[in-house]
## 1
Amino acid sequence: MLGFERRVVEGLATTPDPARREAIVGYVDGALQAMPQHLRAGVVAESLLLGVFPTLRGTMGRSSVITRDDLERWNRSRIGVVRQYARLFGSLVLFADEELPAEGMT
Amino acid sequence: MTEISTEVLVIGSGAGGAVTASRLARAGCDVVVVEEGPWLDADDVEPFSLEEMVAKYRHRGLSAALGSPGIAFAEGRCVGGSTEINSGLYRRLPADLAEEWRTAYRISDFDASSLDHFADLVELDVSVTSLPGPAPESSEILARGAAALGWREVEFSRVFRYEQSGRGVKQTMSRTFVPRAVEAGAQIIPDCRVDRLLRDGDRIVGARCTRTAGPAGEQLLIRAEHVFVCAGAIQSPALLQRSGIRSRIGRGLKFHPTVKVAARFTRALDHEEVPVHRVTEFSPYLTIGGSASRRGHVALALADSSADYQDALEHWTDVVVYYAAIRSEGSGRVLAIPGLKAPLVTYSMTDADMSRLTRGVVHLGELLFAAGAVELYPGIAGAGIARDPRDLVAWWDALDRTRGDLLTVHLTSTIRMGEERALTGADSFGRVWGYRNLRVNDAALLPDAPGVNPQAAIMTIATRNAEEFLAVSRG
């Protein structure tokens, strides 16, 4: 999992419980590793591209944290693959958040 | 490299492979079954749970056909294949559809009475039953909505056995045909991926495999007199292509494009079972049914609408997920790419498909309102929450190639069967053209997606083809 992808997951996860957040990150990491390689390559390429903007924001003295506004913007993007990217991460985090047992899993 | 020899090698252990292995082993054949995924206790994980996705789904459920729109799909990857992860609905292949296929693809011995005979044989081995009591409320909603609109509906049978306690146990392959194959002497090798088949002229002489667990990377060479490839409509053509067998292999992929709708009612409903009713008013081109609706599934279906769903999620027990699925005019392709383990899968929906799917989602909305739903969240970004039948008007224009969240589970037709050489990859009994001892015996053989859950058709055709193999090879 790329650093940017981890930040996306952390931006999406709503639980304040650090152990549970870590479990969600772990689940998403496992899912990304399990993806077909060609699909995973596409996701990596998008992560690299989308990661440029928060980084640039950081260099301008603003926060480089991935915010819900970023995620909402990607969700509404006119570019299909950007929306799919947001939906992929949104679905993985949401499903993990709702379905992970209380003690979490790795 | 470990080397073993067998009379018959069966690759895959799902509805096609397990049935094939069981029939051949019981007839006295020396059978080895290779399965890429693990051999798990069927009760190890809860059905439709996150744990099940991790343990039993290929790519943890993250497979997709590329295209406009892209379409997510799921395959099982464990002993028992996709029968371990599906809803267990069972519907014989409709006779008119079998006749259509027989004519178009010139499939020998494919008449309705012959297929009924083999379906009878399947049903001797696996318990096909209706619910012992009334259907759960989530299922009755479909019947009630259909009745209100004057539409036909039917309660589907399932491959379930009911214990004295009333607990229903899905008769997956790992609970039925796999143990029967083992009892008859078949050897099951789980956690073992077949990298490629070994060819010698017009014969397959064996398979080169790699262990996926245990001593990871260990190579295995299995020599066989006969090979049945039963890895499903995606993996079977991919394996043949990796082995250099490409003529009419992997083209014509078919499935049932599906859109879900999360329906909110005014009271809590059941969430343990998948609804067994199906609305057949528009069959075979359009089917309306219900999906798994655990909390996670409800959350995903609500989120797919891109509407504000927090209140509905807080009352998730009032919400059930339903779907509209179509038989598609479009088709797709499976392409094994050197160096990549997973094949590239593409699918092209026609404009007529999009129109039919839109009609399906609107009909589903009408039915759910007629059954008492108070809010509908369609899997269409930006379509908005429907709170009244008049709101459904907006759905007609909302589903386009960019905004729908499409998925499917029934994958077929990548190595079609029949004597029409220009259209098929295998003959009427699954023998791959050009090879004397190589057969396919799974969903890939079906000439089209049948408009219903294909498990019954796959098992019936697998039984038929196994019996033909025995008749030919053993007199």
## 2
Amino acid sequence: MGRKRLMRGSHVIAETATLAGCRFYAGYPITPQNELPEYLSSRFAKLEDATFIQAESELAAINMVMGASMTGVRAMTSSSSPGISLKQEGISYMAGMELPAVVANIMRGGPGLGNIAPSQQDYFQATRGGGHGDYRTIVLAPHSGQELVTLTMKAFDLADTYRTPVIILGDGLMGQMMEPVTFPEPIEPSALPKKEWTLDGAMERDSRLICSLRLDPFKMEQHNWKLARKYAAICERETEHESYLLDDAVVAVVAFGTAARIAKGAVNRVRKEGLKAGLFRPITLWPFPENELRGLTRSVKHILVFEMNFGQMVEDVRLSVGEKATVHFHGRPGGIISTPHEIADAITRLVYRYGLC
Amino acid sequence: MIKQVFKRPDALKDNIFHYCPGCGHSVIHRLVAEVIDELGIRGKTVGVPPAGCAVLAYNYLDVDMGEAPHGRAVAVATGIKRCRPDLVVFTYQGDGDIAAIGTAETVHAANRGERLTVIFVNNGCYGMTGGQMAPTTLLGQTTTTTPGGRIQLRDGFPVDLSQMLAVAGGSVYIERTAVTSPKNIIKTKKAIKKAFKAQMDDLGFSLVEILSACPTNWKLSPVDSCKRIEDEVVKQYPLMVIKDTTSL
């Protein structure tokens, strides 16, 4: 760990990617994530083995990442909501081809062109695959600058380990906010485990093929089941969450990313008033920490889901807890950033309405 | 002593082509394989097949291959080549793939001068999906989506992608050939070889457009299909070197 540096979120992702051994980036300008490619363009220019391409489109960018990944290089792209929609074609192909890649989505308001304010509108898109086909992507939701470091490092490892696209799901606030961070030691690409499936010319070996096409339905089914087993293994091993002041809590806020950051402030506020509230923060949105959340219902019977949309993760919360707790929802779509005060009010209303104090 | 004068190229697998009788893909696959053999690059070549009939090129060409989504072959190839400049990277694409859904990727790759070689097979229709109108379909040509023939006012003009790419600053060699006769096949092979060499010499973007028959969708015999190319298609798409700055 080096000294602390004050950096904005988009720069943190870019710097961490470089330290993680990422040596290929292709992207297309879109607000509010332009600082990420801008930073990488100069960072990569100083490296002999790194490639930065400003592509002609989001489609071209994700497909360039696909090609780079075929050679075994750690590769990434980034965009914001409308651009991520365009990238879904390539993400689906990479899931089918079992190619690693890291995709950062710095979400903005929508649908459509929407606006450039922070939002969490792409939860469904990120956690349900997003493109066509029976697949999932691992989705990591950072809520601080330092967590952008740990989760970006982790994203590249998970992508390589499971040979699958990994999404870093941030938002305009995560991308723009400046916080002090410390970085890990850089990983040299040559020090990474060798990949045995890459395309590098069939020199003294049989030729290789990377494809998602399976014309024979039985072979396609086999491939789909193989992916399903992989996803099941990811669910078993890779869920991650944070519990904040939940030991004695009677009401739990469930929130991710920026919303969780705000919710922490709200929990601190109501704690000062003597209300026993805590925060359950999914860090992996897929796989969703459903067992851990269900376990919480042994002591917590009221859950307040807070999202910067009009209700997406709340469905996963309901699926996780079933009838074991009552799930309430507070959301602000369109790029509105709720204040901790607003969420504290929502918690307080809940507590008094259900006599939880 | 018997001298062997003809054999299967090392870069061509011992599989029976699935292509229709008279289809140009089989011949073009073989030409690509012969060129790879002659240049001695089988061990450092990566191919990117398209969506369409030739997606199964990897069943025949014995080199590393990575599939691309429809139209995105040169973008995928760009990613491969930029990470591994030591490899020889080619795409194999049809006219719908490269001149409709993949136009943007192709124009920009040519403009950047990506060190790639594109084998562009132009048969004037979407073969695998059943013969719909392609950007290269001739005016008046009947397809399953132009039942009375292609009309300019409704369907636009045939697209000449090779000419478009010739004005791109990064393209160095673009030639249009055909696989309709032994003479034309030999010319096509020479063009493919030159295009690969342009890449290996680090000169820029190279492309060979090959006029090829689709007898099944044209509803013509293989012989009549070749005749159609030589009599009609070449009027719209003349066989010529469109751009060659390789010796400059």
